[in-house]
Amino acid sequence: MPDKYDVPPTKPGMVQEMVMKYNVNSGNEFAMVSRAQNGVEVSAFFDLLEISDLSKEELSSLLDLSYKTIQRYEKHGKKLNALNSEQLLKMIALYEKAEEVFGSIPSFNRWLRKPAVGLGSHIPLQFMQTPGGIDLIREELIRIEYGALA
Questions:
Q1: Alpha carbon distance 112, 101 (integer Å)
Q2: Which residues contact 94 (CB under 8 A, 6 or more apart)?
Q3: I need a surface site. Which of 11, 39, 86, 110 has the fewest CB within 10 A?
Q4: 0.85 exceeded by the pTM?
């Protein structure tokens, strides 16, 4: 019987392709915020869906948008606003770091749904509603990377 958190493996290099496609530079907050201010294409939403185990409803809810709005933006070629753009860019950067730390995206996707001691035993996915929350998850990944689990 499959685990409820089992997700299909991502293609190797898929995260790196997204990083390049959306010009995400996780080491340069200024560049990421500047990129977000110009708006990001809605395709970033759909690309993130491909690598995460989030449903379209979950991801659109994290962005505080309805999925119908996302579809309308796509149909009319409208870009996301600065806040949603920053959030998506930070999520892409987070997935890049997670692949480094966990070795695979499916492992990270499972971790996102389980309480994390370093985040006060909260479920990391709940923090993805804000750019600051995404930063907290990234900091936890760095602690895990260096072996500081608590």
A1: 13
A2: 134, 137, 138, 141
A3: 11
A4: yes
